[in-house]
Specification:
The chain has 258 residues and is α+β, with helices and mostly antiparallel strands. Helices cover 27% and strands 25% of the residues. It has one domain (7-257): 2-Layer Sandwich (BirA Bifunctional Protein, domain 2), CATH 3.30.930.10. Helix 2 (110-125) packs across helix 7. 43% of the residues are buried.
Length: 258
């Protein structure tokens, strides 16, 4: 199905929401990053998987996964843990060209703080209280035994820099891929967090309390929850404001939207 024309704004090119299989969606992510070499336009690209998939991070080649016949298994170029890319996850690619004010050559992770702060601001605009940007070190444990290996394997079981949480529970996950010509930050907003299919694929208890309690979906926090169009509009507006702001949020501090 041909993509709709992009909508232009002062700071971000906005692409319409795509729905497709996981492999095709991730190919689009790679193409978006590669495209910055010839067309260095900061871009926001939204997508949702047509059917459930488990997406493994770049460093998870040795992870044993037994996906069922109704679950696709794909790999992404960015790092981080395994993600359950199902219809309950609203995903956003943030393509940031080299030289953009959000990229700090001396701190490759700084772009996470900028992206996370924009997400937190948007969620506050949507009426969500207590959205906090994690600015500290990653809480992913070292995989030293079966238990820590499981927690390390699941993206939404721990927090990384720039990710957005409500209380202790992750709501927006982030990963990134760097190239000389720019950065791609991949974001996932949970509409609901139902990790049973992922846990089963990792040969773990599908009702594991620690994993199921580590994240939360927007549908569980706001009643009624805003639809995709409202979320997309709020996030795009927050990204626009964040780039226009003369002083980005300082590193090393948590950003909270009350």
């Amino acid at each position: 199905m041909p993509a709709s024309p992009a909508r232009s704004t002062a700071h971000w090119r906005r692409l319409p929401l795509e729905t497709a299989g996981a492999a095709a969606l991730l190919e689009g992510s790679a193409a978006l990053l590669d495209g910055l070499a010839d067309d260095p336009a900061p871009t926001l690209r939204w997508y949702r998987a047509r059917r459930t998939a488990i997406v493994l991070g770049r460093g998870q080649r040795r992870l044993e996964v037994r996906a069922g016949a109704d679950v696709d298994l794909v790999r992404r170029d960015s790092g981080g843990g395994a993600v359950l890319l199902d219809p309950e996850l609203l995903s956003l690619d943030v393509a940031v060209p080299a030289g953009h004010p959000w990229i700090d050559p001396g701190d490759l992770g700084a772009v996470f703080a900028r992206v996370g702060a924009a997400w937190a601001a948007a969620l506050g605009d949507l009426g969500l209280r207590g959205a906090v940007v994690h600015e500290g070190p990653s809480t992913t444990p070292r995989a030293t035994d079966t238990r820590s290996s499981l927690l390390a394997a699941v993206c939404y079981a721990s927090l990384g820099r720039g990710e957005v949480r409500v209380g202790p529970r992750k709501l927006v996950g982030l990963s990134q891929r760097h190239r000389r010509h720019g950065v791609l930050v991949q974001c996932g907003l949970l509409r609901r967090w139902r990790p049973a299919a992922l846990l089963e694929a990792l040969d773990a208890d599908p009702a594991d309390a620690e994993v199921t309690g580590a994240a939360v979906g927007l549908e569980d926090l706001l009643h009624p929850a805003p639809g995709d169009a409202e979320v997309i509009g709020a996030v795009e507006a927050a990204f626009e404001r964040a780039v226009a702001a003369p002083h980005p949020p300082p590193d090393g501090t948590a950003t909270e939207v009350a």
